[in-house]
Design brief:
alpha+beta; Glycosyltransferase; Jelly Rolls; Immunoglobulin-like; 3 domains; 7-stranded antiparallel sheet; 5-stranded antiparallel sheet; 9 helices; 23 strands; globular
Length: 501
Protein backbone atom coordinates (compact mmCIF):
# COMPACT_ATOMS: atom_id res chain seq x y z
CA UNK A 1 0.00 0.00 0.00
CA UNK A 2 1.27 3.43 -0.84
CA UNK A 3 -0.11 6.70 0.47
CA UNK A 4 -0.57 9.64 -1.83
CA UNK A 5 -0.97 13.13 -0.39
CA UNK A 6 -3.28 15.47 -2.19
CA UNK A 7 -2.27 19.03 -1.43
CA UNK A 8 -5.39 21.14 -1.23
CA UNK A 9 -4.93 24.90 -1.13
CA UNK A 10 -8.08 26.00 -2.97
CA UNK A 11 -11.79 25.41 -2.64
CA UNK A 12 -11.86 23.39 -5.81
CA UNK A 13 -10.09 22.84 -9.09
CA UNK A 14 -13.14 24.20 -10.85
CA UNK A 15 -12.82 27.62 -9.23
CA UNK A 16 -9.15 27.96 -10.17
CA UNK A 17 -9.54 27.66 -13.93
CA UNK A 18 -10.89 30.34 -16.22
CA UNK A 19 -14.49 31.05 -15.19
CA UNK A 20 -15.69 31.22 -18.80
CA UNK A 21 -14.03 28.00 -19.95
CA UNK A 22 -16.17 26.17 -22.45
CA UNK A 23 -15.78 23.45 -25.03
CA UNK A 24 -14.06 24.35 -28.26
CA UNK A 25 -17.42 24.13 -30.05
CA UNK A 26 -18.05 27.74 -28.99
CA UNK A 27 -15.16 28.73 -31.28
CA UNK A 28 -14.57 31.95 -29.35
CA UNK A 29 -12.20 34.54 -30.73
CA UNK A 30 -8.59 34.32 -29.62
CA UNK A 31 -7.73 35.76 -26.21
CA UNK A 32 -5.88 39.10 -26.57
CA UNK A 33 -2.16 38.57 -26.06
CA UNK A 34 -1.78 41.76 -23.99
CA UNK A 35 -4.28 40.39 -21.47
CA UNK A 36 -2.39 37.13 -21.25
CA UNK A 37 0.82 39.11 -20.66
CA UNK A 38 -0.53 40.34 -17.34
CA UNK A 39 -0.60 36.80 -16.06
CA UNK A 40 3.00 36.03 -16.96
CA UNK A 41 4.90 39.29 -16.57
CA UNK A 42 5.89 38.52 -12.98
CA UNK A 43 7.78 35.37 -13.89
CA UNK A 44 10.12 36.82 -16.48
CA UNK A 45 13.73 37.66 -16.49
CA UNK A 46 15.99 34.87 -17.60
CA UNK A 47 16.36 34.63 -21.35
CA UNK A 48 19.61 32.63 -21.21
CA UNK A 49 17.90 29.27 -21.13
CA UNK A 50 18.41 27.13 -24.22
CA UNK A 51 19.16 23.78 -22.60
CA UNK A 52 19.61 20.52 -24.48
CA UNK A 53 19.32 17.04 -23.00
CA UNK A 54 22.12 16.39 -20.50
CA UNK A 55 23.62 19.86 -21.06
CA UNK A 56 23.38 20.83 -17.41
CA UNK A 57 24.82 17.50 -16.28
CA UNK A 58 27.88 18.06 -18.45
CA UNK A 59 28.33 21.51 -16.97
CA UNK A 60 27.62 20.59 -13.34
CA UNK A 61 29.83 17.49 -13.37
CA UNK A 62 32.94 19.27 -14.63
CA UNK A 63 32.93 23.06 -14.13
CA UNK A 64 33.86 24.13 -10.59
CA UNK A 65 34.62 27.80 -11.31
CA UNK A 66 34.44 29.74 -14.58
CA UNK A 67 33.93 33.37 -13.57
CA UNK A 68 31.66 35.18 -11.14
CA UNK A 69 28.55 37.26 -11.87
CA UNK A 70 29.62 39.69 -9.12
CA UNK A 71 32.36 42.25 -9.68
CA UNK A 72 33.95 42.76 -6.25
CA UNK A 73 34.33 39.35 -4.60
CA UNK A 74 33.36 35.71 -5.10
CA UNK A 75 30.45 34.84 -2.86
CA UNK A 76 31.28 31.12 -2.81
CA UNK A 77 34.63 31.62 -1.06
CA UNK A 78 35.92 32.37 2.43
CA UNK A 79 39.23 32.92 4.18
CA UNK A 80 41.06 32.70 7.49
CA UNK A 81 44.15 34.58 8.64
CA UNK A 82 46.56 34.08 11.55
CA UNK A 83 48.91 37.05 11.96
CA UNK A 84 51.54 37.93 11.03
CA UNK A 85 50.59 36.21 7.74
CA UNK A 86 48.11 38.02 5.47
CA UNK A 87 45.78 37.21 2.61
CA UNK A 88 43.67 39.80 0.81
CA UNK A 89 39.94 39.36 1.40
CA UNK A 90 36.88 41.48 0.67
CA UNK A 91 34.05 40.82 3.12
CA UNK A 92 36.02 37.74 4.15
CA UNK A 93 35.88 36.47 0.57
CA UNK A 94 38.30 36.26 -2.32
CA UNK A 95 38.41 39.42 -4.47
CA UNK A 96 37.98 39.29 -8.23
CA UNK A 97 40.46 40.35 -10.89
CA UNK A 98 38.76 41.95 -13.91
CA UNK A 99 41.72 42.88 -16.13
CA UNK A 100 43.35 39.43 -16.44
CA UNK A 101 41.24 36.29 -16.80
CA UNK A 102 41.06 33.06 -18.75
CA UNK A 103 37.26 33.08 -18.88
CA UNK A 104 35.62 36.49 -18.70
CA UNK A 105 34.56 38.59 -17.05
CA UNK A 106 36.92 37.89 -14.12
CA UNK A 107 39.26 35.56 -12.25
CA UNK A 108 39.92 34.93 -8.56
CA UNK A 109 42.67 37.04 -6.97
CA UNK A 110 44.88 35.25 -4.45
CA UNK A 111 47.28 37.75 -2.83
CA UNK A 112 49.16 36.65 0.29
CA UNK A 113 52.19 36.99 2.49
CA UNK A 114 53.25 33.86 4.35
CA UNK A 115 55.09 34.71 7.56
CA UNK A 116 56.73 32.39 10.05
CA UNK A 117 54.51 31.63 13.06
CA UNK A 118 51.49 32.74 11.02
CA UNK A 119 49.06 31.14 8.63
CA UNK A 120 46.29 31.70 6.11
CA UNK A 121 43.89 29.63 4.06
CA UNK A 122 41.11 30.29 1.57
CA UNK A 123 38.31 28.00 0.48
CA UNK A 124 36.65 28.09 -2.95
CA UNK A 125 33.32 26.35 -2.51
CA UNK A 126 31.21 24.43 -4.99
CA UNK A 127 28.07 26.18 -6.21
CA UNK A 128 25.05 24.24 -4.98
CA UNK A 129 22.56 24.30 -7.80
CA UNK A 130 18.92 23.90 -6.80
CA UNK A 131 17.81 20.23 -6.74
CA UNK A 132 21.16 19.07 -8.10
CA UNK A 133 23.56 16.73 -6.28
CA UNK A 134 27.32 17.00 -6.30
CA UNK A 135 28.45 14.32 -8.73
CA UNK A 136 31.79 15.31 -10.20
CA UNK A 137 33.17 13.13 -12.99
CA UNK A 138 36.92 12.72 -13.36
CA UNK A 139 40.16 12.00 -11.59
CA UNK A 140 42.03 15.24 -12.30
CA UNK A 141 41.41 18.72 -10.89
CA UNK A 142 42.82 21.40 -13.16
CA UNK A 143 42.94 25.18 -13.02
CA UNK A 144 44.70 28.05 -14.73
CA UNK A 145 46.98 30.50 -12.91
CA UNK A 146 48.47 33.86 -13.89
CA UNK A 147 51.32 35.56 -12.02
CA UNK A 148 52.17 39.25 -12.57
CA UNK A 149 55.81 38.27 -11.85
CA UNK A 150 57.62 34.97 -12.21
CA UNK A 151 56.80 32.77 -9.23
CA UNK A 152 59.05 29.96 -8.07
CA UNK A 153 57.23 26.69 -7.54
CA UNK A 154 58.47 26.63 -3.93
CA UNK A 155 56.60 29.90 -3.30
CA UNK A 156 53.24 28.50 -4.40
CA UNK A 157 50.66 27.66 -1.71
CA UNK A 158 49.44 24.25 -0.67
CA UNK A 159 46.24 22.67 -1.98
CA UNK A 160 43.72 20.42 -0.26
CA UNK A 161 40.20 19.21 -1.08
CA UNK A 162 37.14 18.49 1.05
CA UNK A 163 33.89 16.67 0.30
CA UNK A 164 30.35 17.23 1.56
CA UNK A 165 30.56 14.25 3.94
CA UNK A 166 33.50 15.67 5.91
CA UNK A 167 36.22 13.80 4.05
CA UNK A 168 39.38 15.66 3.15
CA UNK A 169 42.82 15.20 1.66
CA UNK A 170 46.26 16.19 2.87
CA UNK A 171 47.42 19.73 2.09
CA UNK A 172 50.08 19.13 -0.57
CA UNK A 173 52.46 21.76 -1.96
CA UNK A 174 51.45 22.85 -5.45
CA UNK A 175 55.09 22.45 -6.40
CA UNK A 176 54.40 18.70 -6.56
CA UNK A 177 52.20 19.34 -9.60
CA UNK A 178 53.89 22.18 -11.47
CA UNK A 179 57.16 23.98 -12.01
CA UNK A 180 57.78 27.70 -11.84
CA UNK A 181 54.92 29.92 -13.02
CA UNK A 182 56.13 32.30 -15.74
CA UNK A 183 55.31 35.99 -15.58
CA UNK A 184 52.15 37.24 -17.31
CA UNK A 185 51.24 33.97 -18.96
CA UNK A 186 48.27 31.77 -18.14
CA UNK A 187 49.57 28.36 -17.06
CA UNK A 188 47.53 25.24 -16.46
CA UNK A 189 48.08 23.15 -13.32
CA UNK A 190 46.66 19.63 -13.24
CA UNK A 191 46.33 17.81 -9.93
CA UNK A 192 46.13 14.02 -10.08
CA UNK A 193 43.68 13.24 -7.31
CA UNK A 194 45.37 9.94 -6.57
CA UNK A 195 48.36 11.99 -5.39
CA UNK A 196 46.27 13.78 -2.75
CA UNK A 197 45.96 11.25 0.04
CA UNK A 198 42.90 11.16 2.28
CA UNK A 199 43.64 11.55 5.98
CA UNK A 200 40.11 11.87 7.36
CA UNK A 201 37.99 9.33 9.19
CA UNK A 202 35.68 9.17 6.19
CA UNK A 203 37.74 8.70 3.02
CA UNK A 204 37.66 11.67 0.68
CA UNK A 205 35.20 11.14 -2.19
CA UNK A 206 36.17 13.10 -5.34
CA UNK A 207 32.62 12.85 -6.74
CA UNK A 208 31.36 14.78 -3.69
CA UNK A 209 34.00 17.53 -3.83
CA UNK A 210 32.63 20.65 -2.16
CA UNK A 211 35.68 22.89 -1.64
CA UNK A 212 39.17 23.57 -3.00
CA UNK A 213 41.47 25.00 -0.33
CA UNK A 214 44.69 26.95 -0.81
CA UNK A 215 46.82 27.56 2.28
CA UNK A 216 50.16 28.82 3.51
CA UNK A 217 53.27 26.93 2.50
CA UNK A 218 56.72 28.05 3.63
CA UNK A 219 56.88 31.39 5.47
CA UNK A 220 59.11 33.46 3.18
CA UNK A 221 57.64 36.80 4.38
CA UNK A 222 57.23 38.11 0.80
CA UNK A 223 54.04 39.31 -0.91
CA UNK A 224 52.75 37.16 -3.78
CA UNK A 225 49.81 37.42 -6.17
CA UNK A 226 48.26 34.69 -8.27
CA UNK A 227 45.09 34.85 -10.35
CA UNK A 228 43.12 31.61 -10.58
CA UNK A 229 40.50 30.74 -13.20
CA UNK A 230 38.69 27.84 -14.95
CA UNK A 231 38.72 25.25 -12.16
CA UNK A 232 37.53 21.95 -13.63
CA UNK A 233 37.19 18.26 -12.83
CA UNK A 234 37.99 16.00 -15.77
CA UNK A 235 39.56 12.72 -16.70
CA UNK A 236 43.19 12.58 -17.70
CA UNK A 237 43.57 15.14 -20.47
CA UNK A 238 44.11 13.84 -23.97
CA UNK A 239 44.40 15.71 -27.22
CA UNK A 240 40.92 16.87 -28.18
CA UNK A 241 39.69 18.01 -31.56
CA UNK A 242 38.75 21.61 -32.16
CA UNK A 243 35.07 22.14 -31.26
CA UNK A 244 32.56 22.88 -33.98
CA UNK A 245 32.13 26.61 -34.43
CA UNK A 246 28.80 28.28 -33.57
CA UNK A 247 26.84 29.85 -36.42
CA UNK A 248 24.04 32.32 -37.15
CA UNK A 249 24.90 34.82 -34.41
CA UNK A 250 22.25 37.52 -33.91
CA UNK A 251 22.44 40.61 -31.70
CA UNK A 252 19.44 42.66 -30.53
CA UNK A 253 20.02 45.98 -28.80
CA UNK A 254 17.72 47.32 -26.08
CA UNK A 255 18.13 50.39 -23.89
CA UNK A 256 21.14 49.29 -21.85
CA UNK A 257 21.86 45.71 -22.82
CA UNK A 258 22.23 43.48 -25.88
CA UNK A 259 20.77 40.00 -26.25
CA UNK A 260 22.79 37.48 -28.27
CA UNK A 261 21.64 34.17 -29.68
CA UNK A 262 23.36 31.66 -31.91
CA UNK A 263 23.14 28.13 -33.22
CA UNK A 264 25.55 25.34 -32.32
CA UNK A 265 25.92 21.66 -33.06
CA UNK A 266 25.80 19.04 -30.32
CA UNK A 267 29.51 18.50 -29.67
CA UNK A 268 30.70 16.04 -26.98
CA UNK A 269 33.97 17.97 -26.64
CA UNK A 270 32.56 21.46 -26.18
CA UNK A 271 32.31 22.78 -22.63
CA UNK A 272 31.47 26.46 -23.08
CA UNK A 273 31.01 29.33 -25.49
CA UNK A 274 33.21 32.43 -25.41
CA UNK A 275 31.67 35.84 -26.12
CA UNK A 276 33.73 38.70 -27.58
CA UNK A 277 32.69 42.35 -27.91
CA UNK A 278 33.99 45.21 -30.02
CA UNK A 279 32.99 48.77 -29.09
CA UNK A 280 32.70 51.33 -31.87
CA UNK A 281 34.96 49.41 -34.24
CA UNK A 282 37.69 48.64 -31.71
CA UNK A 283 39.43 45.35 -31.01
CA UNK A 284 37.36 42.39 -29.88
CA UNK A 285 37.72 41.60 -26.17
CA UNK A 286 36.31 38.69 -24.21
CA UNK A 287 33.37 39.77 -22.06
CA UNK A 288 32.05 36.44 -20.81
CA UNK A 289 31.50 32.73 -21.27
CA UNK A 290 28.29 30.76 -21.50
CA UNK A 291 27.90 27.14 -20.45
CA UNK A 292 27.46 24.44 -23.02
CA UNK A 293 23.86 23.95 -24.12
CA UNK A 294 22.86 27.59 -23.60
CA UNK A 295 22.82 29.46 -26.90
CA UNK A 296 21.91 32.87 -25.50
CA UNK A 297 23.86 35.57 -23.68
CA UNK A 298 22.89 38.96 -22.26
CA UNK A 299 25.61 41.61 -22.31
CA UNK A 300 25.02 44.60 -20.02
CA UNK A 301 26.45 47.60 -21.86
CA UNK A 302 25.13 50.15 -19.36
CA UNK A 303 24.43 53.10 -21.64
CA UNK A 304 22.08 53.89 -24.52
CA UNK A 305 23.55 54.69 -27.94
CA UNK A 306 26.36 52.14 -27.60
CA UNK A 307 27.50 50.72 -30.94
CA UNK A 308 28.83 47.20 -30.38
CA UNK A 309 29.69 44.11 -32.39
CA UNK A 310 30.05 40.52 -31.19
CA UNK A 311 31.63 37.21 -32.08
CA UNK A 312 31.20 33.85 -30.35
CA UNK A 313 33.37 30.72 -30.33
CA UNK A 314 33.15 27.27 -28.75
CA UNK A 315 35.81 25.95 -26.38
CA UNK A 316 36.65 22.55 -24.90
CA UNK A 317 38.04 21.52 -21.52
CA UNK A 318 41.61 22.05 -22.70
CA UNK A 319 40.71 25.61 -23.73
CA UNK A 320 41.07 24.76 -27.41
CA UNK A 321 38.85 27.25 -29.20
CA UNK A 322 36.91 27.05 -32.45
CA UNK A 323 36.74 29.70 -35.10
CA UNK A 324 34.55 32.63 -34.18
CA UNK A 325 31.22 33.40 -35.75
CA UNK A 326 30.81 36.18 -38.25
CA UNK A 327 30.27 39.49 -36.45
CA UNK A 328 26.80 40.60 -35.39
CA UNK A 329 26.22 44.25 -34.52
CA UNK A 330 23.66 46.15 -32.46
CA UNK A 331 23.08 49.60 -31.01
CA UNK A 332 21.45 50.30 -27.67
CA UNK A 333 18.75 52.95 -27.76
CA UNK A 334 16.06 54.65 -25.70
CA UNK A 335 12.92 52.50 -25.65
CA UNK A 336 9.24 53.33 -25.79
CA UNK A 337 6.80 51.68 -23.38
CA UNK A 338 5.61 49.42 -26.17
CA UNK A 339 9.18 48.32 -26.95
CA UNK A 340 9.72 47.63 -23.25
CA UNK A 341 6.63 45.40 -23.12
CA UNK A 342 7.77 43.57 -26.23
CA UNK A 343 11.18 42.98 -24.67
CA UNK A 344 9.59 41.55 -21.52
CA UNK A 345 7.23 39.36 -23.51
CA UNK A 346 10.01 38.04 -25.71
CA UNK A 347 12.29 37.32 -22.74
CA UNK A 348 9.52 35.49 -20.88
CA UNK A 349 8.71 33.42 -23.94
CA UNK A 350 12.33 32.45 -24.62
CA UNK A 351 12.77 31.22 -21.05
CA UNK A 352 10.10 28.60 -21.67
CA UNK A 353 10.66 27.97 -25.37
CA UNK A 354 14.44 27.62 -25.40
CA UNK A 355 14.67 26.12 -21.92
CA UNK A 356 12.04 23.42 -22.33
CA UNK A 357 12.72 19.81 -21.39
CA UNK A 358 13.28 18.26 -24.84
CA UNK A 359 10.94 15.25 -24.68
CA UNK A 360 7.90 16.81 -23.01
CA UNK A 361 8.23 20.45 -24.04
CA UNK A 362 7.50 21.34 -20.40
CA UNK A 363 9.30 23.92 -18.27
CA UNK A 364 12.27 22.74 -16.23
CA UNK A 365 11.93 23.27 -12.49
CA UNK A 366 15.15 25.27 -12.25
CA UNK A 367 17.83 26.54 -14.60
CA UNK A 368 20.57 25.62 -14.01
CA UNK A 369 19.17 22.42 -12.56
CA UNK A 370 18.41 18.77 -13.32
CA UNK A 371 17.89 18.12 -17.02
CA UNK A 372 14.54 16.30 -16.78
CA UNK A 373 12.73 17.64 -13.68
CA UNK A 374 9.69 19.54 -14.97
CA UNK A 375 7.27 21.71 -12.97
CA UNK A 376 3.54 21.68 -13.67
CA UNK A 377 2.59 25.23 -12.67
CA UNK A 378 5.59 26.84 -14.35
CA UNK A 379 4.70 24.94 -17.51
CA UNK A 380 1.23 26.45 -17.38
CA UNK A 381 2.78 29.92 -17.39
CA UNK A 382 4.94 28.79 -20.30
CA UNK A 383 1.88 27.75 -22.29
CA UNK A 384 0.43 31.25 -21.91
CA UNK A 385 3.78 32.75 -22.93
CA UNK A 386 3.70 30.55 -26.03
CA UNK A 387 0.28 31.89 -27.01
CA UNK A 388 1.62 35.44 -26.66
CA UNK A 389 4.65 34.53 -28.80
CA UNK A 390 2.49 33.27 -31.65
CA UNK A 391 0.25 36.33 -31.47
CA UNK A 392 3.25 38.68 -31.47
CA UNK A 393 5.03 36.85 -34.28
CA UNK A 394 8.01 35.63 -32.24
CA UNK A 395 7.37 32.17 -33.69
CA UNK A 396 5.01 30.89 -36.37
CA UNK A 397 1.56 29.54 -35.56
CA UNK A 398 2.68 26.13 -36.80
CA UNK A 399 5.66 26.11 -34.44
CA UNK A 400 3.44 27.05 -31.52
CA UNK A 401 0.84 24.40 -32.32
CA UNK A 402 3.52 21.72 -32.67
CA UNK A 403 5.00 22.52 -29.25
CA UNK A 404 1.54 22.73 -27.69
CA UNK A 405 0.59 19.33 -29.07
CA UNK A 406 3.81 17.83 -27.69
CA UNK A 407 2.99 19.23 -24.23
CA UNK A 408 -0.64 18.11 -24.36
CA UNK A 409 0.21 14.58 -25.52
CA UNK A 410 2.81 14.27 -22.77
CA UNK A 411 0.31 15.36 -20.14
CA UNK A 412 -2.29 12.97 -21.54
CA UNK A 413 -0.02 10.02 -20.70
CA UNK A 414 1.55 11.41 -17.52
CA UNK A 415 0.62 10.30 -14.00
CA UNK A 416 -2.73 11.72 -12.88
CA UNK A 417 -4.76 11.35 -9.70
CA UNK A 418 -8.49 11.72 -10.31
CA UNK A 419 -7.58 13.91 -13.28
CA UNK A 420 -5.12 16.17 -11.44
CA UNK A 421 -1.36 16.18 -11.99
CA UNK A 422 1.49 16.18 -9.50
CA UNK A 423 3.66 19.22 -8.86
CA UNK A 424 6.75 17.64 -10.45
CA UNK A 425 7.20 15.06 -13.20
CA UNK A 426 10.09 13.35 -14.94
CA UNK A 427 10.03 14.84 -18.44
CA UNK A 428 11.26 11.60 -19.96
CA UNK A 429 8.63 9.29 -18.48
CA UNK A 430 5.76 11.38 -17.15
CA UNK A 431 6.16 9.74 -13.74
CA UNK A 432 5.62 11.68 -10.52
CA UNK A 433 8.71 12.99 -8.72
CA UNK A 434 8.21 13.56 -4.98
CA UNK A 435 10.68 16.42 -4.75
CA UNK A 436 9.45 17.91 -1.46
CA UNK A 437 9.28 14.69 0.50
CA UNK A 438 7.55 11.34 0.92
CA UNK A 439 4.03 12.83 0.88
CA UNK A 440 4.64 15.06 -2.14
CA UNK A 441 3.69 12.20 -4.45
CA UNK A 442 0.09 12.90 -5.41
CA UNK A 443 -2.10 15.50 -7.07
CA UNK A 444 -1.41 19.20 -6.63
CA UNK A 445 -4.46 21.34 -7.30
CA UNK A 446 -2.66 24.68 -7.42
CA UNK A 447 -0.11 23.45 -9.96
CA UNK A 448 -2.81 21.64 -11.93
CA UNK A 449 -4.91 24.80 -11.99
CA UNK A 450 -2.07 26.87 -13.42
CA UNK A 451 -1.54 24.30 -16.14
CA UNK A 452 -5.25 23.97 -16.91
CA UNK A 453 -5.59 27.74 -17.28
CA UNK A 454 -2.79 27.67 -19.82
CA UNK A 455 -4.30 24.73 -21.68
CA UNK A 456 -7.73 26.35 -21.87
CA UNK A 457 -6.21 29.60 -23.15
CA UNK A 458 -4.33 27.60 -25.81
CA UNK A 459 -7.48 25.67 -26.71
CA UNK A 460 -9.35 28.89 -27.42
CA UNK A 461 -6.45 30.44 -29.32
CA UNK A 462 -5.59 27.52 -31.61
CA UNK A 463 -9.03 27.41 -33.24
CA UNK A 464 -8.19 26.69 -36.89
CA UNK A 465 -9.83 23.86 -38.84
CA UNK A 466 -6.70 21.85 -39.52
CA UNK A 467 -5.52 18.46 -38.32
CA UNK A 468 -2.92 19.75 -35.89
CA UNK A 469 -5.05 22.30 -34.06
CA UNK A 470 -8.14 20.08 -34.05
CA UNK A 471 -6.13 17.29 -32.45
CA UNK A 472 -4.76 19.75 -29.89
CA UNK A 473 -8.23 20.90 -28.87
CA UNK A 474 -9.43 17.30 -28.59
CA UNK A 475 -6.58 16.36 -26.24
CA UNK A 476 -7.10 19.45 -24.06
CA UNK A 477 -10.84 18.83 -23.85
CA UNK A 478 -10.22 15.27 -22.74
CA UNK A 479 -7.92 16.50 -19.96
CA UNK A 480 -10.34 19.25 -18.91
CA UNK A 481 -13.28 16.87 -18.71
CA UNK A 482 -11.23 14.20 -16.95
CA UNK A 483 -10.94 16.06 -13.66
CA UNK A 484 -12.98 14.47 -10.85
CA UNK A 485 -13.92 17.80 -9.28
CA UNK A 486 -16.31 16.28 -6.79
CA UNK A 487 -13.74 13.87 -5.40
CA UNK A 488 -11.04 16.55 -5.39
CA UNK A 489 -12.93 18.72 -2.93
CA UNK A 490 -11.52 18.56 0.60
CA UNK A 491 -13.62 16.73 3.20
CA UNK A 492 -15.19 18.90 5.92
CA UNK A 493 -12.67 20.34 8.41
CA UNK A 494 -9.75 19.02 6.37
CA UNK A 495 -7.13 20.90 4.36
CA UNK A 496 -5.84 17.86 2.51
CA UNK A 497 -7.16 14.61 1.12
CA UNK A 498 -5.36 11.29 1.27
CA UNK A 499 -6.03 8.21 -0.77
CA UNK A 500 -4.73 4.68 -0.66
CA UNK A 501 -3.69 2.71 -3.71
Amino acid sequence: MREFALKFRTASLEKQVLPSARDDSSREQSIPARIILAGIAAIVFCSEAQVHAQAFDRFAQHTFFAGSPASDYYSYSRGNISAPSTVRLVNNRLPLETAEFKSGPNALELSWTSAKNGGWDVSIDAVRWRNAELNWQGDTLSFWVFAPHTMKSADLPRIALTDEQGGHTTAAPLSEFTGDVPARKWTRISVDLTKLHSESLRPFQPARLNAVLFSQNDGDGKPHTLYVDEIRMDGAMSVQSVPAAPTALQATGYERHVDLEWQAQDDPGATEYVVYRSERGGAYKQVGVQRYGVHRFTDWVGLPDAKVSYQVSARNGQMVESKRTSPASATTHAMTDDELLTMVQRASFHYYWDGAEPNSGMALESQPGPDHLVAMGASGFGVMALVVAVDRGFITREQGAERMLRIANFLDKADKYHGAWAHFLDGRTGKTVSLFGIYDDGADLVETSFMMQGLLAARQYFNKDNTQETQLRDVINRQWRGGDRGWLRAPPLKDARYMQS
